[in-house]
Write a structure and sequence with these properties.
Blueprint (H helix, E strand, L loop, with lengths): L1 E3 L3 E5 L11 E10 L4 E5 L5 E7 L2 E12 L35 H12 L6 H14 L1 E2 L10 H7 L1 E2 L1 H14 L4 E7 L14 E9 L2 E5 L11 E6 L8 E3 L4 E2 L11
Parallel strand pairs: 7-8
Antiparallel strand pairs: 1-6, 1-14, 2-5, 2-13, 3-6, 4-5, 9-10, 9-12, 10-11
Helix pairs in contact: 1-4, 2-4, 3-4
C-alpha cells in the first residue's frame, strides 16, 4: 500500500521468471486499486518487469501466483571446478566485477587471507558461505539502502540481501563469478522454524559450465525456490523502483506451500 503526493511512474519486480529449471507458473494475477494500466517488459538481465503509475493518493498493488516446483532441493556437486577468468564465457565475466553493493576491491585482502589457500571449486565457495553465515547475525533494520558488503561485514549484522552481497563480494575478489538472485522461498519440509514470510535473496556461482545455487543466509539446500530476478546485486532487482517519492505504508509477502 502506498500514499503518493503525485502520480509516480514505477517499475515493479515481483513476477517469477518464466524460464527457471523445473518451475512452472500455473496461475497468476495482479491488480491495482484504484485501477491503473500497466505493461510488462524484459530488462537486460532477462527479468520480467511491470511498468505502471502509482496514482496520487492511497493505492494498493496486489500480485498472486501459484507455482509448481520440484520436490527436491537444488543441485550440489562438490567436484564442480572453478574456471579461470580467461576461459569464462563473455556474458559471465561481468559477474567478477565490483558493483554498487558488492565491493571486492575493499574486501579483497580479507578474501585472499581467508580463502586463497583452500582447494578451488565448489567446496571453496561453500567455505565462503559458511564463514558469512557464522559471521553475520540476521537482524531486520540492521542495514540501510546504502549499506555495502563492507559495511555489513564491519557491523556483523544484516538481512538476507546483506549475507548474499558479502558472499558474492568474497567470490568476486577471488575471480569466481557470482550473481545476486531475488525470489520467493517458502518453508517446505523445514521443521522447527518460525520464519516470517518475505522476499528472499541468495546467489548463483559459475563453476564448470553452469550456475550453481548457494544460500549464505540459510546455508542449506532448500526446496521451493521461485526466482523473480537475477543481477549484479540488489540494485538490479529492486522489488519497486519509483521515479518520485511515494510513501510505502505497508507490505505483506506470502510464500507458502499449498496442496
Amino acid at each position: 500500500m502506498h500514499e503518493a503526493a503525485v502520480d509516480t511512474p514505477s517499475v515493479v519486480q515481483v513476477m517469477p521468471l518464466r524460464e527457471q529449471g523445473g518451475v512452472r507458473i500455473t496461475d497468476e494475477r495482479w491488480s491495482i486499486e484504484p485501477a491503473q494500466a500497466g505493461r510488462t517488459y524484459t530488462d537486460l538481465y532477462g527479468n520480467e518487469c511491470l511498468r505502471l503509475i502509482i496514482p496520487t493518493g492511497r493505492s494498493t498493488f496486489r500480485y498472486d501466483a501459484i507455482a509448481e516446483v520440484p520436490d527436491a532441493t537444488e543441485d550440489v556437486d562438490v567436484t564442480a571446478p572453478e574456471v579461470a577468468p580467461l576461459d569464462l564465457p563473455d556474458d559471465v565475466l561481468l559477474y567478477t566485477l565490483p558493483s554498487r553493493y558488492v565491493v571486492p576491491d575493499l574486501l579483497g585482502d580479507e578474501a585472499w587471507n581467508r580463502f586463497s589457500q583452500l582447494p578451488k571449486g565448489y567446496t571453496r565457495v561453500q567455505a565462503i558461505c559458511d564463514h558469512v553465515h557464522r559471521h553475520l547475525t540476521f537482524q531486520y533494520g540492521s542495514s540501510t539502502a546504502s549499506s555495502t558488503a563492507a559495511d555489513v561485514y564491519a557491523s556483523g549484522y544484516g538481512v538476507c540481501r546483506d549475507f548474499t552481497h558479502l558472499a558474492i563480494t568474497f567470490c568476486r575478489a577471488l575471480s569466481i563469478p557470482a550473481r545476486y538472485v531475488f525470489g520467493y522461498l517458502p518453508e517446505m519440509d523445514i521443521e522447527g522454524t518460525a520464519i516470517v514470510p518475505d522476499f528472499s535473496a541468495w546467489m548463483e556461482v559459475w563453476l564448470g559450465d553452469r550456475w550453481w545455487t548457494f544460500d549464505p543466509r540459510n546455508n542449506t539446500p532448500r526446496k521451493g525456490r521461485v526466482l523473480i530476478g537475477r543481477g549484479r546485486d540488489a540494485s538490479d532487482v529492486a522489488m519497486l523502483t519509483t521515479f518520485g517519492g511515494p510513501l510505502l505504508e505497508s507490505m505483506v509477502v506470502h510464500a507458502e506451500e499449498v496442496e
